[in-house]
Amino acid sequence: MTGSVWWSIVSLVFILCTAPVWSVSVMSVDLGTEWMKVAIVSPGVPMEIALNKESKRKTPVAIAFRDGERTFGEDALTVGVRFPKLCYTHFLELLGKKIDHPLVQVFKKRFPYYDIVASPDRGTVVFQHDSETQFTPEELLAMLLQKAREFAQNSAIEKINDAVIIVPGYFNQAERRAVLQAAELSGLKVLQLMNDYTAVALNYGIFRRKDFNETAQYVMFYDMGASSTTATVVSFQLVKTKEKGVVESNPQLSVIGVGYDRTLGGLEKQMRLRDHLGKKFNEMKKTPNDVFQNPRAMAKLFKEAGRVKNVLSANVDHFAQIEGLLDDKDFKVQVTREEFEKMCEDLFERVKAPIDQALKTSGLSMDLISQVILVGAGTRVPKVQEKLTEKVAMELSKNLNTDEAAVMGAVYRAADLSNGFKVKKFLTKDAVLFPIQVIFDREADGGVKQVKRMLFGQMNPYPQKKILTFNKYQTDFTFHVNYAELDYLNPSEIQSVGQLNLSQVDLSGVAEAHELHKGAANAESKGIKAHFTLDESGVLALSSVELVIEKTLSDEEAAGEESPFSKLGSTISPEDALKNNLDEKPVKEEPETGKAGESGEKKDQSEGEEVKQSSEEQQAKEKPTEEQKKNATGKDGEKKKPKVVTVKEAIKFSEKLIGINPLAEKEMQESLKKITSLDEHDARKRAREGAMNALESAVIDAKVKLEEDAYNQAATQQESEAILALCAKIFDWLDEEGYSAEAADFESRLAELKQLTAPVWRRVKEHEERPDALAGLESTLSHSNNFLATIKNMTANQTEADETPIFTAVEISLLQKTISDTQEWKSKMIEEQSKLKSSDNPKLTIASIVEKINNVEREVKYLVNKIKIWRPKKKESPKDTKNTTSSTDQKAKKDGSGKDKSKEEEKVIEPSEEVNEEEESPNAAESGQGTKTKAQQPEPEAQEPIAEAEVPEVAEPVVEPSKTESELRKDSESEPSIVASALIVFVIHVLFRLVT
Question: What is the rounded end-to-end Cα distance, in angstroms, of the chain?
């Protein structure tokens, strides 16, 4: 392999290795009431937790604002202990709720130091931070998501835009829209809002996909977190899917039963323990003041209660102690696990209820559940595990990471949804927790009757599409979308769900749409169809409304309508259309026989049969019988089957959300402006702190260095005094004005200090690095002398062997002169430098030494480059020249046919045509016999072997265009250093031995 090819390969590998990677990383965020976890998937890094700045795997959900500074996580909690009102925590439960919501009242009771007011436009919760500043829960969540994105980007070392966000499964429509708007404010693109229990089940399944088969396996996940508890029944099995015409089996998880308790969690236990500690302190009578009236003291008690609660999960007792709890009085008291269990006795009795609810909605019994898996930090409490064991009568499984299972499952889903990664398919089917129905009025028997139609029943899988058909309306009308009866929930939970009315839809232009086809004998109305979508995030949307008309065309109209596209469309049967969209199901509005609610429920239950039956009926209409086929292809007088086309007229509609409206465009812009302002302030703060730290470090570094002998000797007395005076001046400025200065002020003083210290630091660097540089120069001269001796010996041998030398005498003398001049310069400069003081500017600089090294290497590399393109030749003797000429003359003579062969060859061979390198030997090329085949070429003459010590380092013979001296010297400048050149020379030496 030639040297040029070697360097081409190396360059290609370097380009491929250093090419920038397109940003494809994705992230997931587990939004908990108390903690936040972030996970990422990036190229080469599959599924890992993104660490925060403290290198911890989870971050407290806390944001604090004090003295114009915004802090997150642990730093925010530190602020919150001293100033509870300025630190916002546990605000996730306030999303999408009005000020009078029961859970808002519970929040105000737990954290009385927050000033919570109602939004004037939406009636939702707003934190009154000060007289001029307010924060909505959406804004606080957006800031938290920005911080999560920062953690993810620091771990992935690239920008991240896409995320899957985990939310509680019991979040309603308003709460889910609030999370989506918060993500929009943070600049994140939400791939999906994923329910927490679905994410946990996916994490469990992806590592056990080989354990599943066509038989469903039922697993229960019991999750107790900070604020809520959920029990979920999930089935795992292999299902067949068709992807791009290929049928394959993939694992699928289906959520088939869910039970939950929204207020049962670790937070309620912590609050009770806090109140218990507060009572104990008041009973000690250390101060006449009531600890419950002091927000700071209550914040300290709350933090200590959380610590003690965690310790009691592993110990039977522990001491709670706080220094200076109230009026500088310390507090210390022993708390036993028995006391803790007694104060939370009613909470432990509620542990079993979610399991009963999950089994009821799934229609299964505990006998069919293979295992119960614990998730969430609350399940570590021994009493909780004891109650669960009594209920399920089996050993509890603890084979999942209780803290990180959800976020790791969600990041796998994020990678699946993104375009940058290909993961093993794992299908997920979530389930509707709160059934959704449509309610509308219809005239019947002289009165108005309310009709209910179920859109998405309880535990219906989603994502899914539904079509609701209105058959009786000829004019504009209105219908409502509401939650259906939630009788399976307890009354307190129904209140927590909030507003049951979701939206009101007003249709307009119905009469006009009907009028377009009124009076047409061949037109039949199929009703007004409303298309609903429940997407992967569980958000309901009305996508379109249309009037559907079926028209029967006459022979003339059918002929006019016929086109390639209509022919293609007519070949698609309703059954095929149904297969293309399995999730889209019609829900027809038909006359009722009983109560509206009962009929609606019955309608939803038999909906699948109706879809199938409706599809078969349409197919039967379009597929002719054998008799019809015979008639259609019979004699000319027989009648053919009429053609039916479908016409759709769009109906205008306006949807008004009832209850909690999303943030309007104006409110979104105001919130975005507020968040952007805080981001810019934080950026200025980081820049200022960085500049201040750099200045302080430079001042300290300068003072320390001047105390060292090397730096003290390298500086003159005037320079030392000036540097120390400036350092003292900067220190005084930092004490007096530094804390209010901007980044530019620090940078200007740092530049002034650097300008003063640069000459001294440069001298020290020259003195320290000069020995190494001189050693490098000496090594270069030594290698160059060895190379010079080698090529001199080689040139002499080539002359004796009657060969053309590679190098000319001028080239050899030029290298010899360069080496000699450099050696003289080195001796002279070392002598001159030795006469200077350390504080004088050096004459023998590192830059000058490097320049001399480059000059010598340039000459050596020029000669090496010449070796690379050189091809061994033998000088032609007069006898060889005569024989070659004679042979050429004979070929030029006419052959037996009397034609001139040389002229023919001139006509056949084009000037640009090249001789095959494999068929041309060196001897043939030099003797004018390049057109001979390999078999016709004479054997090369044997050459006298050359001693190994006399062989120079040359490259394998290569056919390349000749290069000028300037080009070779240019190439030599881009060659590697002398060490790399020595390696190349060695390789060339071996190749030359093989060739010659």
Answer: 16
Q: Record the tokens describing residue 70, joined without a space.
A: 């915004």
Rounded CA gap, 891 and 900, in Å?
A: 9
* Nearest by Cα to 332 from 316, 350, 324, 320: 320
The predicted structure's pLDDT at residue 23: 66
Q: How many other CB atoms sit within 10 Å of the CB of residue 251?
A: 21
Question: 448-469 pLDDT, tens per residue?
Answer: 888 999 999 999 999 999 999 9
Rounded to 5 degrees, φ, ψ at 655 are: -110, 125
The whole-angstrom separation of Cα 30 and Cα 203 is 13
Q: What angle do CA 720, 724, 728 make, to 5 degrees?
A: 170
CA 417 to CA 165: how far, in whole Å?
13
Residues 6+ apart with CB under 8 A from 547: 510, 513, 514, 525, 527, 528, 529, 648, 649, 651
pLDDT of residue 769: 92
Strand order of the β-sheet with 69-72 is: 69-72, 62-66, 87-89
Q: Does this model's pTM top 0.90?
A: no
pLDDT at 3: 42
Which residue has 């015979």 as its token pair?
630
Distance of CA 345 to the CA centre of its chain: 44
E strands present in 154-261: 162-167, 189-195, 217-224, 229-243, 246-261
Burial 960-969 (b: 16+ CB within 10 A, else e): eeeeeeeebe
Q: What is the 3-state secondary structure (H, E, C) of 271-283?
A: HHHHHHHHHHHHH
CA distances from 979 to 63, 857, 860, 932 (A): 57, 10, 12, 44
Retrieve residue 771's tokens.
């020995």
User: pLDDT, tens digit, for every residue of 963-987?
Assistant: 444 544 444 444 445 444 544 554 4
Residues of 910-924 as b/e, b for ≥16 C-beta within 10 angstroms?
A: eeeeeeeeeebbeeb
For 948, residues 6+ apart whose C-beta sits below 8 A from its C-beta are 993
The pLDDT of 713-729, averaged and rounded, is 91
For the stretch 268-279, pLDDT in tens is: 999 999 999 999
555 — pLDDT class (breaks 50, 70, 90): low
pLDDT band at 323 (very low <50, low <70, confident <90, very high): very high
Burial of 767 (0-12, 13-18, 19+ CB in 10 A): middle
CA distance 848 to 755: 23
Say which residues have a Cβ less than 8 Å from residue 391's Cβ, sequence separation at least 6.
351, 352, 355
- Checking if the pLDDT of 308 tops 60, the result is yes
Q: Where are the beta strands (DSSP E) in 554-687?
A: 584-588, 643-650, 652-657
pLDDT at res. 193 = 96
Residue 46 pLDDT level (bands cut at 50, 70, 90): confident
Burial class (CB in 10 A: 0-12, 13-18, 19+), 161: middle
Read off the tokens for 200.
Answer: 């946990």
- Whole-angstrom distance, CA of residue 723 vs CA of residue 758: 11
